[in-house]
Design goal:
heterodimer, A: about 240 residues, alpha/beta, Rossmann fold, 6-stranded mixed beta sheet, 9 helices, globular, B: about 220 residues, mainly alpha, MetI-like fold, 10 helices, about 0% strand
Chain lengths: ~240, ~220
């Protein structure tokens, strides 16, 4: 079976800064894959490479076994099958319902289907009462729920989560984690790549985990091995919480 | 005839609205997409192009009139179209004044849409074209402002309108050229009356655009 995502010796620079350095990684379909690491390790840049927003300066990124040039029609078509949730999602200046509808409008769904799906999503995420409110009036937790609804309403086969819980209180974190687990269970072929610096969250949720350090992927392992018997001493120190960053 | 004038004030007022409105719409149809492209795309010479656009805010109406006069005069390259001294020529001359204003304001407005909103739009899977359209919609208030300023420039315009329109009674006479005529003839009362009409029309259009601007996007 072809992999959902593959990075082959990918390097990405921003000016003199090497954000991702010679990174190789394979993520299989149906996996919930975690990318751990301190701030500035290059985790979000890896997600941007996977979402075809940036192209690597060297190496390549394959989605479903295919190398797709960024800023191409093919990339636009592939990106319409990928969902991404940012650490600080922004509300578009329109109603809550129309924020969700936007995801379907850009994918050219019919008006009928949009109305039906938006209703279902509003119910699912407890946002019915807010449906006509401008989304900019939502609280942080509500906005993150809206963001999840907006990014999953079209059933993406690949979902990318960039520090989705960094600005949430514990109750909303638990709620979001539950929604992510449910989303995975709905369809076993779905793949999630989750960037976090929260060790405990990675332990709770992920099947396999990679640790990034200064732009390099220094270890990729099954969850049990990653936490109990890592190969790299930096991973051992990181999971023990020895390294302060 | 009305108010003791030798021409129909209502017809002159409607022509003013038509010429200024059409010039604003056409100018915005060109200037706003152009400004969005300049504001959102990265390319060599972008900074220079932005500077030129902003500099063109001060484009003198008489030059715009001259350009249109030259192009559409009998000896000009498009003379055979026969549009000189018609409202069409006036619309084109005023449109040239609106384009840099609409483009410049759009550049500023789309550039200032928050980074997090631009990132969110792309992260939701929008193609580059759809991203641009969504960012323009997010900058709605500023784009309506561009139309307001463009209309304000057109409705107050006299030099280009006179040059390429000719102030022909019943044909190309608009409020500004009528005010000029009355003033020259020493009929200050009429000139002031027409001035009040001009001001009222401008304020009514601005009020409408302001309401449009405040409309909450749903």
């Amino acid at each position: 079976m072809m992999s959902a995502v593959e990075l082959r010796d990918a390097t990405k620079r921003f000016g003199d800064v090497i954000a991702v350095n010679d990174a190789s990684l394979t993520i299989e379909k149906g996996e919930l894959f975690g990318i751990l690491g301190p701030s500035g390790a290059g985790k979000s840049t890896v997600l941007r490479l996977i979402d075809l927003l940036d192209a690597p300066d060297e190496g390549e990124v394959l989605i479903n076994g295919e190398k797709i040039p960024v800023n191409s029609r093919k990339a636009d078509a592939m990106r319409s099958r990928i969902g991404m949730i940012l650490q600080k999602p922004a509300a578009l200046n329109r109603s809550v319902a129309n924020n969700i509808a936007y995801s379907l409008q850009i994918r050219e769904w019919s008006e009928e289907e949009i109305a039906k799906r938006v209703d279902e999503e509003l119910k699912k995420y407890g946002l019915q009462e807010r449906r006509a409110k401008n989304a900019r009036t939502l609280s942080g937790g509500e906005l993150q729920r809206l963001s999840f609804a907006r990014s999953t309403v079209f059933g993406p086969e690949l979902l990318l989560l960039d520090e989705f819980s960094a600005n949430l209180d514990p109750k909303n974190v638990a709620l979001m984690e539950d929604q992510i687990s449910r989303y995975m269970r709905e369809d076993e072929s779905r793949t999630i790549v989750m960037v976090t610096h929260n060790i405990f969250q990675a332990k709770r949720m992920c099947d396999r985990i990679a640790l990034m350090w200064d732009g390099e992927i220094i270890e990729v392992a099954e969850k049990k091995k990653f936490f109990e018997d890592p190969d790299d001493p930096r991973t051992a120190a990181f999971v023990k919480g020895d390294i302060v960053y | 005839m009305a108010f003791g004038l030798e021409y129909d004030v209502i017809q002159v007022t409607l022509l003013s609205l038509y010429v200024s409105g059409a010039a604003t719409v056409l100018g915005c149809m060109i200037g706003i997409p152009l400004g969005s492209l300049i504001g959102l795309k990265e390319f060599g010479g972008k900074s220079l192009l932005k500077t030129i656009t902003y500099t063109m805010y001060g484009f003198p109406p008489v030059i715009s009139g001259l350009v249109i006069y030259y192009l559409f005069s009998r000896a000009g390259p498009f003379g055979s179209l026969g549009i000189l001294f018609t409202p069409t020529a006036m619309i084109l001359a005023e449109m040239l004044l609106v384009i840099p204003l609409a483009a410049g304001i759009t550049i500023t407005e789309v550039t200032e849409v928050d980074r997090s909103i631009k990132d969110t739009i792309r992260a939701l899977g929008a193609s580059r074209r759809k991203s641009t359209l969504t960012i323009m919609r997010e900058a709605w208030v500023g784009l309506v402002m561009a139309a307001m300023i463009g209309f304000g420039r057109c409705i107050a315009e006299v030099g280009a309108a006179y040059m390429v329109g000719g102030n022909i009674q019943g044909e190309t006479r608009v409020l500004t050229t009528a005010i000029m005529l009355e003033t020259r003839m020493g009929k200050f009362d009429y000139a002031i009356g027409l001035g009040v009409v001009l001001l009222s029309v401008a304020m009514a259009v601005f009020l409408f655009l302001r309401l449009l601007q405040e409309k909450e996007y749903q």
